[in-house]
Specification:
With 208 residues, this protein is of the alpha/beta class. The chain is built from 7 helices and 9 strands, in the order H-H-E-H-E-H-E-E-H-E-H-E-E-H-E-E. The strands form 2 sheets. Strands 3-2-1-4-5-9-8 form a 7-stranded mixed sheet, with helices on both faces.
Length: 208
């Protein structure tokens, strides 16, 4: 199922269905950024606001962006703060939602739906302040190698969202070519069991 249709359908149950990837990525973001304090944050893939509520504790202003109008509607009901501005946009297109430069950009479970990482890293570099951070939290490529993808159940059966597999080196290469250096790479496991395939990959990058 294409991404736009999938999240339109998924929005009604996204916050309530069992979703280990969603929940563990929320943990990974909080773990990675717990000591971070910034002025301006650009949240790419805010969805229903699952992380936005927490990011407000880090940033004085958040520009929250999502491809799905239906997911954004849920977020806007959930979060009423004059420090957050929501925007419906396709990040493959022009970033008209950008307001100045950002000290922190977050990508939560977004880049698996993007084919061209270089394009996105190039755009991110243009709007990152010097020394600005980028957080990336993704379904681990090791999980993708086993056939795992974003998916959810409906009355019509299992719906699988269109995804692209990006290797760890794809992320680090695209980062390096666009003026970002790797600060931290981490892996998060179901039940913190490090004997199994990790579920979430995180990268923390800094603009040179």
């Amino acid at each position: 199922m294409n991404v736009k249709d999938a999240y339109k359908t998924w929005s009604g149950q996204y916050d309530t269905n069992v979703n280990k990837t969603r929940d563990l990525e929320a943990v990974s973001l909080r773990t990675t950024l717990t000591s971070c304090k910034v002025e301006n944050c650009l949240e790419i893939g805010c969805g229903t606001g699952k992380n936005t509520e927490w990011l407000i504790t880090l940033a004085n202003h958040i520009t929250a962006v999502d491809f799905s109008e239906e997911m954004l509607e849920k977020a806007e009901v959930k979060i009423s703060s004059d420090r957050v501005r929501f925007h419906n946009a396709d990040i493959n297109d022009k970033w008209d939602f950008v307001k100045g430069q950002y000290d922190l950009i977050t990508f939560s479970l977004v880049l698996e739906h993007i084919e061209n990482l270089d394009l996105i890293f190039e755009k991110a570099a243009r709007v990152s302040s010097p020394g600005g951070l980028i957080y990336i939290g993704e379904l681990h490529p090791f999980k993708q190698y086993t056939g795992s993808k974003a998916r959810f159940e409906t009355e019509d059966g299992l719906q699988v969202v269109q995804c692209f597999t990006h290797n760890i080196s794809d992320f680090t290469r695209a980062a390096g070519q666009n003026q970002f250096e790797l600060v931290e790479l981490n892996e998060f496991f179901d039940n913190d069991d490090r004997s199994i395939v990790p579920r979430i990959l995180t990268l923390l990058l800094r603009k040179k």
